[in-house]
Amino acid sequence: xxxxxxxxxxxxxxxxxxxxxxxxxxxxxxxxxxxxxxxxxxxxxxxxxxxxxxxxxxxxxxxxxxxxxxxxxxxxxxxxxxxxxxxxxxxxxxxxxxxxxxxxxxxxxxxxxxxxxxxx
Amino acid sequence: xxxxxxxxxxxxxxxxxxxxxxxxxxxxxxxxxxxxxxxxxxxxxxxxxxxxxxxxxxxxxxxxxxxxxxxxxxxxxxxxxxxxxxxxxxxxxxxxxxxxxxxxxxxxxxxxxxxxxxxxxxxxxxxxxxxxxxxxxxxxxxxxxxxxxxxxxxxxxxxxxxxxxxxxxxxxxxxxxxxxxxxxxxxxxxxxxxxxxxxxxxxxxxxxxxxxxxxxxxxxxxxxxxxxxxxxxxxxxxxxxxxxxxxxxxxxxxxxxxxxxxxxxxxxxxxxxxxxxxxxxxxxxxxxxxxxxxxxxxxxxxxxxxxxxxxxxxxxxxxxxxxxxxxxxxxxxxxxxxxxxxxxxxxxxxxxxxxxxxxxxxxxxxxxxxxxxxxxxxxxxxxxxxxxxxxxxxxxxxxxxxxxxxxxxxxxxxxxxx
Lengths: 120, 418
Prior knowledge:
Oligomer: heterodimer
Structural class of chain B: alpha/beta
Number of strands of chain A: 10
Strand content of chain B: 25-35%
Largest sheet of chain A: 5 strands, mixed
Distance between the termini of chain B: 63 Å
Structural class of chain A: alpha+beta
Radius of gyration of chain A: 19 Å
Helix content of chain B: 10-25%
Number of strands of chain B: 27
Shape of chain A: elongated
Strand content of chain A: 25-35%
Radius of gyration of chain B: 22 Å
Largest interface: A-B, 29 and 33 residues
């Protein structure tokens, strides 16, 4: 196993190489500081992302309302979550912070609205 | 004619922050003029997160960041009009507005804050040859269609330009089911944040082709593809690398230009480098009582910096109205020298009493470098930097003590540490 990645902890952006040694331990090289190693291990073992998208809305000044996952969800469920989002439709009014979908993809994270839209 | 103390042109992040700050500093009679159907400006279409880390110490999406300021505006009972275009501003601050609802209006203001933001450079600015089919958009236009109006722009997409908007749109289109085949970048490096390259391109295995450009757009009614390839060190296409990329959509993310058509109507001096007004540390332009802030002055990387700058503009506009601050102060010119492309402000007052954040961009990427502030041959300040890049705006705080040492000109330069 040999994985190349770019560290995003700070603007320097070290090019990291992640390998495993004989004892199955993860070895990170190319990082200029300790934070790079922590980042690389997290990215390798459990990569997570905040997902932002939009949901259909009726009776508002625009046709889409922006949403986000309140926290990070596993990277591998991003497209599964997009499928659920695609099949959701709301009716205004909606308030910023309202829960749109609870516990999306069993991630223990809620999908919430990020804009308040009044009924027109 | 209707008289208003302070008119703010633009209801995006700059206009909102300026209005809130002016009201908090004692100006009661304020009008914010917005041309779109809602306040918030471009933040409303920037649904991704990463805004507000400096201002609110948390990660917000664009609409959330806008809503924080819109809530403040409403709590402070600040007046605003929507769907209203400003046609002109005269030197004595007479403003002409046009709207469907109220028709043609004239307003006389004691002070004006310009907060019109910026717009995207389009295909025409690059002179890319080929036909003119449907399916060619600037990245921001596509962003508005998808995120606010609910139209998908295409199925197979190539993007020219790897600034942050281009990168964000590559991810957004991919999540919405499009196939983004690649992102071309003319420069040998990306102008976008590392974080966006990783989370928008690497995550979805979208290739970033550096030192590449689109040679020609092909298609009769709809885009059918592009010819693209490498460029040499003078950015001229290398014909032997020409390759066809089939696609139905081309997005341009090739830079932003401050929107200053209105500024020209009242003869504001514009800086050729920033394409925005020349301003001092108080965000005053050369026209008495006309201030400017946000992306209309120079394109910022972070909205947090726009808000901070605009709060200062609002504060000084209120000072101008209430105490008539003196514009005829002795000027210190700020010169962008070696490897610095511009500074904002471009000049400061000798009698400035508040600390001024001096913002600038460097011309190229540096690994180890020093930022040097000089007056004549005398070095006033040296700041060591581990990393400098044109895509990342730098800030140096200028305090009273430093200003008192300046003899007419302050120069900013970069020295590489080898």
